[in-house]
Each structure stands twice: as structure tokens, then as C-alpha cells.
From TrEMBL:
Its main location: cytoplasm. The keyword Lipid biosynthesis does not apply. The record marks 18 as: Participates in the substrate recognition with KAPA and in a stacking interaction with the adenine ring of SAM. Catalyzes the transfer of the alpha-amino group from S-adenosyl-L-methionine (SAM) to 7-keto-8-aminopelargonic acid (KAPA) to form 7,8-diaminopelargonic acid (DAPA). It is the only aminotransferase known to utilize SAM as an amino donor. The lineage of its organism: Bacteria, Pseudomonadati, Pseudomonadota, Alphaproteobacteria, Acetobacterales. This is Adenosylmethionine-8-amino-7-oxononanoate aminotransferase. It comes from Novacetimonas cocois. It holds the Pfam family Aminotran_3. SUPFAM superfamilies: PLP-dependent transferases. CDD domains: OAT_like. GO terms for biological process: biotin biosynthetic process. One of its GO terms (molecular function) is pyridoxal phosphate binding. The modification N6-(pyridoxal phosphate)lysine is found at residue 269. Pathway: Cofactor biosynthesis; biotin biosynthesis; 7,8-diaminononanoate from 8-amino-7-oxononanoate (SAM route): step 1/1. It is found in: Cytoplasm.
């Protein structure tokens, strides 16, 4: 089947993400979206199980968000944020500060999650420099973690995960350790901190769910241990809520389930409900105050050209309206309950290692996925857009998904596993 002309022309000029371009199978041409559907050029419609990399929390083309963008588009699509401010950004900062726990009050806007994490790292290191403390320039992060693809953020991802392994010799060295899930790992972390604590600027973690590292869950207690240890050793604590923020784990922010307030938090992904690129790095008052100084070098020297883009901030404000007026967290609970019930049917299928659900995240972990391309094709043949990676097949649907659409997704997962589509046999 031939694709549209723009695809025939463009495929020899485009460079795709995370893709070996030598052997890439043709990607699918998407032409429009609506609700939880992705419409393809040949007329097929796929039910989206992953909300476009976890962003489209209110479904696609939500009229309230589209209206907000249109209104902002005719008023002022963009203006630089140096020396100028505007209503969408300042209103958004005020609203985020009001929603976030504790004194997470000061918001720095950027245009992608990786950059928000870079800014968090930069703030954490400079925090100590500004306070006259030298030598605290390393991060402590965790195995299974993922914080972005830029150079600084690659260095705080799981080093064995493979995605960035080629760069090992080039990256700055940080401490990557096991999450303190039990007495042994907690003690190991504590002894690491008592040895090297005075080199560490901040502890960095994805709270409750390590997303791109494999949808690995941990208990809120882990986060309380990290807060206690960070306080004991005088280290900053950064929560990367780029995946978990905005309801995904069942509360508006994952940190609320542990009752822990980090010193710095990063947000992106669902911040604009998947409509425009935007990210935020939010700090507590004491962090911000370390940058208030008569020394001009003590300012935060960062300023992406498109930071606080008004269209993106207008989207984010419209998304927050929907969280205020619609029963989103209740929908998350219902989605979680339905996924837990329906995915449980996978538990006894061959090749299934684990089935787990938290909030609106449902995961079927397999022993192996021998032929990833075959598995992806089998899912598409069933009319669903689900992107397995490593050994997991997961769902992170829009919170507005209907029960029958969700059943279609869970049913597709159960069927491809039952068919053995993830296995090696049956050359098709
Ligand atoms: C996706 C993600 C990032 C990186 O965000 P980009 O917008 O892709 O740069 C960082 N941290 C977490 C937890 C993420 O899920």
C-alpha cells in the first residue's frame, strides 16, 4: 500500500526518534486525531492506548483547549520572555504554585522535559555555589530511572539501560544506586551518603513510577526515606514528575501520596494536555532565595528562546480548567479499576511475568519480547496504538477514554499475548 505523496517525498529526509534508520519499517502516516482516536491516511482508525507519550490526558482536540489556543493565537502567539511578561505565563505560574504542596512557589518555564531536568540540575548545583559551599556538584539518581536524552540528563539515567550506553565515557559521573526499597538497599544508600554526601548536590527521582525505565512502581515509603536522608545529609531532593504529574498515578502529583515535598520539581508531558511543548521547573522558597544576591553571578543564567510560549501556557491553563471542572481523578480511579480487572486475565498466559496497575497506568510485563516488530504489527492489526518496549506492554490512556474503548485496548493486549505474537515461533 502506497502512502501519501508527502510521505514518499519526506521519508528520505526525515530522521526518526530512537530508530535504526537502516532497517526501519515505514511509520504510519497520521492525518488527524479526535477523542482517543488517531486517524491514518488510508482511513484506518487506531484507538490510542498511550495518549501520545503520556501527554493527551483529556483526549485529542478537546474543544476547551482548542478554543484557548485559538483565542491566544489571534492575540499573541509568542513574545520573548526576556524583559517582557504576559498573562498566560504568570497566571499559569500562580495556579501551579497554588496546586503544588508546601512552598513549591517559584516556576521557571522551558520547552521540554529534558531541559526542565537540566535546569533543575543546574539550580541544584548553583544553589550550593551561591551559598559558598564547594564540591557539591554530583547528583544521586537511581537504577531504572529516566530523566531525558540531552547530555546532562543522560548522565542521570540508568547507565545499564542501554539507551545511552555509548556515551558512558563522555558523560559527567554521578552516583546511580538502587532505590531504597528494603532494609538492605536503604542501608547501602545511607552508607553511600555518609561517605560521599558532601559531594552530592541533590537526590533525583521519579516518584512512585519510573516510566521510560520500564514502568517500575515503588511504595510511597521510598520517597519518605529519601526525604529523611536528604534532610539528614543536607542534600536537595528533586522529584521528576514529568510522567507522574497531573493525575497519572491517582493523585494530582505523585508526591502527595507520600506526603513529601521535594525541594525542586519538574513537570512537562501532560502539562499542556499534549497540545504544545512546555515544561516547568518549580522550586521551594529556600532554593529560590539562594539566588537572591548582590553578586550578578548568582543569578540563574538560563533562558530558552521559546520559554513560557503564550500558546503553550494558554493550553496549560485550559488543561488546569478541565482538571478543576471535570472529575478527572475519579476517572483515573475507574480506569485503574477496569484495567486491573481486565488485565488480570493476562496473568496466567504463557510468557507473562507480571501484571501491575497504578492510577491510570497498566502494565503487562513479559519474560521476553522476541520479535518487537511482529508484536507491534499485531497490535496495529487489532486497531490499537500501543507501543511495547523492552519486555513490557503498557497502557497510559487519556483520562477521558470510554470503558468500551479501554476494553478494546486490554482485549488487544490479551489477544496478542495469547496468540504468542511476542514470541519467537510462527514465522509469519
Ligand atoms: C519524558 C520524560 C523526560 C524527558 O522529557 P522530554 O520532553 O522528552 O525531553 C524526563 N523525565 C521523565 C520522567 C520523563 O518521563
Amino acid at each position: 500500500m502506497r502512502g501519501p505523496q508527502w510521505m514518499d517525498n519526506g521519508m528520505s529526509h526525515i530522521w526518526l526518534p530512537y530508530t535504526q534508520m537502516k532497517t526501519v519499517l515505514p511509520p504510519l502516516p497520521a492525518v488527524s486525531t479526535s477523542g482517543c482516536d488517531i486517524h491514518l491516511a488510508d482511513g484506518r482508525v487506531l484507538t490510542d492506548g498511550i495518549a501520545s507519550w503520556w501527554t493527551a490526558c483529556h483526549g485529542y482536540n478537546h474543544p476547551h483547549i482548542c478554543d484557548a489556543v485559538s483565542a491566544q493565537l489571534s492575540r499573541m502567539p509568542h513574545v520573548m520572555f526576556g524583559g517582557l511578561v504576559h498573562e498566560p505565563a504568570l497566571t499559569l505560574a500562580t495556579r501551579l504554585a497554588g496546586m503544588l504542596p508546601g512552598d513549591l512557589e517559584r516556576v521557571f518555564f522551558t520547552d521540554s522535559g529534558s531541559v526542565a531536568v537540566e535546569v533543575a540540575i543546574k539550580i541544584a548545583i548553583q544553589y550550593w555555589i551561591n551559598r559558598g559551599v564547594s564540591g557539591r556538584n554530583r547528583l544521586l539518581a537511581f537504577r531504572g530511572g529516566y530523566h531525558g536524552d540531552t547530555l546532562a540528563t543522560m548522565a542521570v539515567c540508568d547507565p545499564e539501560e542501554g539507551m545511552h550506553a555509548l556515551f558512558n565515557g563522555v558523560l559527567p559521573q554521578h552516583y546511580i544506586v538502587d532505590l531504597p526499597r528494603d532494609q538492605m538497599t536503604l542501608q547501602r544508600l545511607e552508607s553511600r551518603l555518609s561517605e560521599s554526601g558532601d559531594e552530592i548536590a541533590a537526590i533525583l527521582v521519579e516518584p512512585l513510577i519510573q516510566g521510560a525505565g520500564g514502568m517500575l512502581f515503588h511504595d510511597p515509603m521510598v520517597l519518605r526515606h529519601l526525604r529523611t536522608l536528604a534532610d539528614r545529609y543536607g542534600i536537595l531532593l528533586i522529584f521528576d514528575e514529568i510522567f507522574t504529574g497531573f493525575g497519572r498515578t491517582g493523585t494530582m502529583f505523585a508526591c502527595q501520596q507520600a506526603d513529601v515535598v521535594p525541594d525542586i520539581m519538574t513537570l512537562s508531558k501532560a502539562l499542556t494536555a499534549g497540545t504544545m511543548p512546555l515544561a516547568a521547573t518549580v522550586t521551594r522558597t529556600h532554593v529560590f532565595e539562594a539566588f537572591l544576591s548582590d553578586n550578578p553571578l548568582h543569578a540563574l543564567m538560563h533562558g530558552p528562546t521559546f520559554m513560557a510560549n503564550p500558546l503553550a501556557c494558554a493550553c496549560a491553563n485550559a488543561s488546569l480548567d478541565l482538571f478543576e471542572t471535570q472529575p478527572r481523578l475519579q476517572q483515573v480511579r475507574q480506569i485503574g479499576a477496569q484495567m486491573a480487572h481486565e488485565l488480570a486475565a493476562c496473568r496466567h498466559l504463557p510468557n507473562v511475568r507480571d501484571v501491575r496497575v497504578m492510577g491510570a497506568v497498566g502494565v503487562v510485563e513479559l519474560e521476553t519480547i522476541a520479535d518487537m516488530n511482529r508484536l507491534k504489527a499485531a497490535l496495529i492489526a487489532l486497531g490499537v496504538w500501543i507501543r511495547p518496549f523492552r519486555t513490557i506492554i503498557y497502557l497510559t490512556p487519556s483520562f477521558t477514554i470510554r470503558p468500551d474503548e479501554l476494553s478494546r485496548l486490554t482485549d488487544a493486549i490479551r489477544r496478542v499475548i495469547a496468540q504468542g505474537a511476542a514470541g519467537k515461533e510462527a514465522a509469519s
